[in-house]
Amino acid sequence: MIELTGHSLTIDQLMKICVDQESVTISEKSMRDVQNSRLAVEDIVSNSKTVYGINTGFGKFSDVIIHEEDVEELQLNLIRSHACGVGESFPELVSRTMMVLRLNALLKGFSGVRPEVVEILKELINKQVHPVIPQQGSLGASGDLAPLAHLALVLIGEGKVYGEDDQPADSKYVLNAKSIQPVTLKAKEGLALINGTQAMTAMGILNYMEAEQLAYDSEWIAALSMEGLGGIIDAFHPDMHKARGYKQQEQVAARMSNWLKGSELVTRQGDKRVQDAYSIRCIPQVHGATWQTLDYVKEKLEIEMNAATDNPLIFDEGESVISGGNFHGQPIALAMDFLKIAVAELANISERRIERLVNPQLNDLPPFLSPKPGLQSGAMIMQYAAASLVSENKTLAHPASVDSIPSSANQEDHVSMGTIAARHCGGIIQNTRRVLAIECICALQAVDYKGPEKSSSKLQSQWNKVRHIVPSITHDRVFSEDIETVHNALNPLSDSRFGKIACYI
């Protein structure tokens, strides 16, 4: 069981809660902070003080005063009217992550909700009741209003949740079956639930976890390509990378050298040629730059997952209630746009290595790695597929954050589009994993021709793992199935992941 405080949640803890389904508990201090901020809200309502979001309308309606007897209806109307999400639903894992992040934010004690609201969120998480949340409809400022409204619907016994068969089910029936009592939202509670960046941040964290593993996997797959092509290992000499000064570049070079240690298939400078093409020679420089991006993105996510992102925020036990813009998703929008480009580059350089593996003018291997060139096409169209995915990534990599559009009668005149950035980043990650799966299949086949027994001991281990699920190409077959098999095996969030790779060398 993991204790939530609102201040100390880590990515590793979040993965244990969301992927491993660990339960959560709430710290006593955090619950006291929640209670104190709630008392401040109740004082504002009982004394008819005018404070945005507590007894006023929302957005352009912020100047409309709401009477005390209408405050509960205001919150109910807010949730229902803002539940405008459309399109396919987020995966259940994203939904669970959103709930954990929303609960953690409320526990900071700046939001003014009652303990009953945080308790039902905790109960939903621990009993694995996950809202069905459409992916599209968020502008990423004023928070992820539409997605979070669909989450909030479940707390009041409305909306849909994932049933036992993973199909949408009416929440009121599932809550009843799980003995969970819906809440009636009081002043400010609806706004506190939907003002936030939890959709883009949830997707962003899961993107980061997949991208990090992808970056590690790209290295041993590139090392197999090096062996298949007789690449020159001198390019990874530590002095070369120390001379430039980027620690991530040095680390990639060190890991590449370690993967290739003892290999009889790589060459030295001048053995066959003086230097390799950039897609081989510049692996540390290109992959290292992606690692720099990953470090930046992780830093922003770790801040955001413990941030207070609703509005207004309550300080000094109600002495100060401040309206601001912490719900604006710009930090995560830029991070996701940056991650999109960085992951797309892993695909770009991988596809160039695939071309070198299948093009007989660029290697000493059978044309297209075919067992019977001409009669059998071998990996010819696998390179086509990789090229298609890389091209699609270039479209998805266009930054969403530069495409602000005004809303709410121009009151909300600059928005982040951070959730779009996070969703597109997820698409790029899936595409890139498939490109790397194709490189893996081609590199393995090249090593088959060169002699797997000459491979390094670490790469022989990887060769055995993949060959256990994808056989050598002895004749043409439906390679789509092989690509998907390796793609699933490389996914750290997939049940079919073929064991943890010993990446931290």
UniProtKB/TrEMBL annotation:
GO cellular-component term (any): cytoplasm
UniProt-listed Gene3D superfamilies: Fumarase/aspartase (Central domain), Fumarase/aspartase (N-terminal domain)
Domain of life: Bacteria
Record pathway: Amino-acid degradation; L-histidine degradation into L-glutamate; N-formimidoyl-L-glutamate from L-histidine: step 1/3
Cross-link type 5-imidazolinone (Ala-Gly), residue numbers: A141-G143
Subcellular location field: Cytoplasm
BP-aspect Gene Ontology terms: L-histidine catabolic process to glutamate and formamide; L-histidine catabolic process to glutamate and formate
PTM info: Contains an active site 4-methylidene-imidazol-5-one (MIO), which is formed autocatalytically by cyclization and dehydration of residues Ala-Ser-Gly.
Alphabetized GO MF terms: histidine ammonia-lyase activity
Entries under NCBIfam families matching the protein: hutH (TIGR01225), PRK09367.1 (NF006871)
Name this protein carries in UniProt: Histidine ammonia-lyase
